[in-house]
């Protein structure tokens, strides 16, 4: 039996980041969740032109020196400069332009007086407060100069990066592509979701659940298939999928029964390991390499499949994506006692108490308990040498929401 850490290290160490690819930088939302493979440098100055930070009047600061509420300075208004105005304009000393936020500053102006400090006039404006040169002006290049680094290599692209990405004047960006994941459920007992299971049959819920987990983790699901309990069929389907996927995740067929199709297909092939891991759920695990594609053979019990995905498949696939392997964990205190099997690291389904930092168990901890799984909010990590989880104990938990 391997410890949990030994096996997790083994699967993480077996994979490398995918080769980078150059993609259109304009597809900003399509790039979310990908990691940059090289630094992104701006090709242009930002802002691209000197412009106003306020709705108001572009002036020469010297012209309104001494302006005050009881002695306003009046200036003729040459005209309006709205945002998007492409004209090249000039300010003559002793005059002003009415200007909007983001509009290009006319040459010769050195300050903007916001409209609230004026009477808002359109032919002539009375300015009630003096401002310094530079007031309310955003200078060309003050944010970024051409050549400045916008994002270092290794940046996980998030919504906050989109404005810089789209404004940097870059056509292509080199990123690690999204890992392609194929899902395969095994078992003669499985029926398609939506079909009525007969006696002895169950709905294939692992396939869609694993596909949903992969999607939520930011991977690309390229196939969701179901196969029967023969080694030949499993080998054939997995070999086909290996050509189109970076990772294949199977569920079922890895324990000690008489008809374990993953073992029938690959045990003894030299490129697969079937092991027992000291954890609960998730004890039987298989991991292998099929024509360069990583194959995770997860146990079939739905809770075992989910936990195994989160602690083995997700970390290794995040490495393929150029990311840190581990999903986020948070600290929490135990509000209600539960038991954990001796010698196995438990991933217990728990819910958070109101304040979010206290957890209690939900439902039975059997690997088939779907109601408790649906109601759970996190997996509490109980060390292998703990058999009684005591009230007040501090544990790390993996929240089941926001896995990306
Ligand atoms: N003699 C032993 N029996 C078992 C052992 C063991 O060590 N010795 N380990 C147990 C543990 S722990 C687990 S976990 C399971 C793993 O079994 P398999 O991976 O071989 O999975 P199956 O036998 O195919 O299925 C188990 C269970 O899950 C249901 N299942 C399977 N696939 C799906 C699916 N796609 N959707 C919904 N439900 C699914 C299946 O019907 C079974 O009820 O083995 C224990 N046995
Ligand atoms: O290890 Mo199994 O996954 O306990 O039910």
UniProtKB/TrEMBL annotation:
Top-rank lineage group of the source organism: Bacteria
Top EC category: transferase
EC number of this enzyme: 2.10.1.1
One family name in Pfam for this protein: MoeA_N
Cofactor field: Mg(2+)
Limits of the MoaB/Mog domain: 182-319
Reactions it catalyzes: adenylyl-molybdopterin + molybdate = Mo-molybdopterin + AMP + H(+)
Keyword terms: Magnesium, Metal-binding, Molybdenum, Molybdenum cofactor biosynthesis, Transferase
InterPro entries reported for this sequence: MoaB/Mog-like_dom_sf, MoaB/Mog_dom, MoeA-like, MoeA_C_domain_IV, MoeA_C_domain_IV_sf, MoeA_linker/N, MoeA_linker/N_sf
Pathway(s) the chain acts in: Cofactor biosynthesis; molybdopterin biosynthesis
Its job: Catalyzes the insertion of molybdate into adenylated molybdopterin with the concomitant release of AMP.
Family named by the database record: Belongs to the MoeA family.
UniProt name for this protein: Molybdopterin molybdenumtransferase
The organism of origin for this protein: Flexivirga alba
Higher taxonomy: Bacteria, Bacillati, Actinomycetota, Actinomycetes, Micrococcales
